[in-house]
Amino acid sequence: MSNIRKAFENGKAFIPFITCGDPDLETTYKSVMAAIENGADLIELGIPFSDPTAEGPVIQGANLRALSGGVTTDKIFDLVKRLRGETDIPMVFMTYANVVFSYGSEKFISICSDIGIDGLIIPDLPYEEKDEFLPYCKKYGVDLISLIAPTSGGRVAMIAKEAEGFIYVVSSLGVTGTRCSIETDLSSIVDIIRENTDVPCAIGFGISTPAQAHDMAAIADGAIVGSAIIKLLEQYGKDAPEYIGSYVKSMKEAL
Amino acid sequence: MTNKKGRFGVHGGQYIPETLMSAVIELEEAYEHYKNDPDFNRELTALFNDYAGRPSRLYYAEKMTKDLGGAKIYLKREDLNHTGAHKINNVLGQALLAKKMGKTRLIAETGAGQHGVATATAAALMGMECVVFMGEEDTIRQALNVYRMRLLGATVVPVKTGTATLKDAVSEAMREWSSRISDTHYCLGSVMGPHPFPTIVRDFQAVISKEIKEQILEKEGRLPDAVIACVGGGSNAIGSFYHFINEPSVRLIGCEAAGKGIDTFETAATVSTGRLGIFHGMKSYFCQDEYGQIAPVYSISAGLDYPGIGPEHAHLHDTGRAEYVPVTDDEAVNAFEYLARTEGIIPAIESAHAVAHAIKTAPEMDKDKIIVITISGRGDKDCAAIARYRGEDIHE
Description:
The complex is a heterodimer of chains A (255) and B (396). Chain A is an alpha/beta fold and 255 residues long. Chain A has a domain of 167 residues: TIM Barrel (Alpha-Beta Barrel). Chain A has eleven helices and eight strands. In chain A, helix 7 links the parallel strand 5 and strand 6. In chain A, helix 1 packs parallel to helix 3, helix 2 packs across helix 10 and helix 10 packs antiparallel against helix 11. Chain A is globular and about 45 Å long. Chain A starts with 12 loop residues before the first strand and ends with a helix. The mean pLDDT of chain A is 96. With 396 residues, chain B is α/β, with parallel strands linked by helices. Chain B is 43% helix and 19% strand. In chain B, strand 1 and strand 2 form a beta hairpin. Chain B contains 16 helices and 14 strands. Chain B folds into two domains: 156 residues, Rossmann fold (3-Layer(aba) Sandwich), CATH 3.40.50; 214 residues, Rossmann fold (3-Layer(aba) Sandwich), CATH 3.40.50. The longest helix of chain B is centred in the first third of the chain and has 17 residues. The chains are: A alpha/beta (255), B alpha/beta (396). Chains A and B meet through helix 2 and helix 4 of A and strand 2, helix 1, helix 8 and strand 11 of B.
């Protein structure tokens, strides 16, 4: 069974997203550790990409800062090895298809398996293109995480049936970023998911406050938060881990 | 050549966020329906002919031919189309399709501004709202086109992210589309992006080679020996090549922007310097670093300043059916000035890349050979930038 299941065994899951190398890998390390110590259930680590087309301005900024700081895929693999010396929490990578493809898809995914990465989230890899990486993911035991969007309609069941690890339910149209309110009828989407699979689902995009996290987790099995955490890194830089720790604590408690 | 998932060999596909999948599926279904619909095609032909001024001329460049002393040179005058470039062909097709789909709003990316102007024009004609994303750097290089778009009623959004050029404008248009799908059509300007765009745009641009074939048969009684066009994403080139792909006697030559040279980092020559990757919804060749980060490309031409190439071109390169050659800024600027002096035609700096290659190639060919160069657009928009390149500061 996928290690990712463990993230959903301790009540509703809180899943923080952190872009690796923003502003540097030492801060990423400390931020991840602070999130784990304060109740995070699964860590989503972003490998930055020069042109992140599914991201809003906040995460675009993090990608840019990380890349100008000189972070690379290989340095991020080293970071994960170091984290794995301290923790067995489920961890997934979030990155764009070209980062995996250009590294050599099989090489990238086999290294993920070696260093203890449990899954891959690739926002520009829809159901129709998943064979690009799925054979290697299966070979090396890395879950390829499926995304379901408010526009998925008749596609929800098809995607859910083949999902692994967990399902990333995109809360709203558009790109990542904090939102005042989430209007999509997510419970009917989650209902269709549940009819088709027992893989857990977590909602992301637009969640920043404990109240929003509570509402989303009430519908699904967990909540994913990215931009709100990246904003703390943007604001506090190397001092951010402490703020991320208390933020994660407040969010996990609200679930 | 296209199979089920919009592949050209290994290239193409639909590498986009799930949020956009319903939109591209809706578009594909609508296109499959309307492409063979007689009423749709009648309306589109009427727009091409009565509004855009088609067919465009195939002009025998006699002075240029004599001056170069080799192959006979014809110019396919897409610069004479309404709005001054080939871009209008695709835009009229997509805008009409969008209208049939019930969309009320067009969004577009633009580099040099020609596609943005064409989209703003079609939106004005068809009573649709229009928003154009343009790299901030390009809004400066192509200030006149920004004004034209505003005059036509469009909103121009300067894109400040990344390198603030064409690739960033495409990214921003994709982001905007994913936030507003129900009433909005993304009028993509080149043979790139996710399926079905490379096929739709090619089909609407294929009118160029359809006309070349008819016109050259009428004038010369035979097919040309070479067709030369510039390539950024590659829409005028694929339009110029399409009806000759199955005519092996016709050499197909795409001219990429080499910027300051393919041995420098300041280049946008994708086939010469890029490698296989996945970006902007497609698998194709891209300029990128060893970790797959997209390279900040450069060309004097805002319209060719793109780090990728359309998937069908990538496939034509793989099979050897078409050749892709680099042309530097310097060569393009010389050709820009040459065509103005020799034929009294000021080409777009993009098209000047194709002219430059013809200047190199024609003298090496026998006098009974025939070259067709596609002049994809007119060069008025470039005059200030070329003057600056020559050290002269003029006010537009």
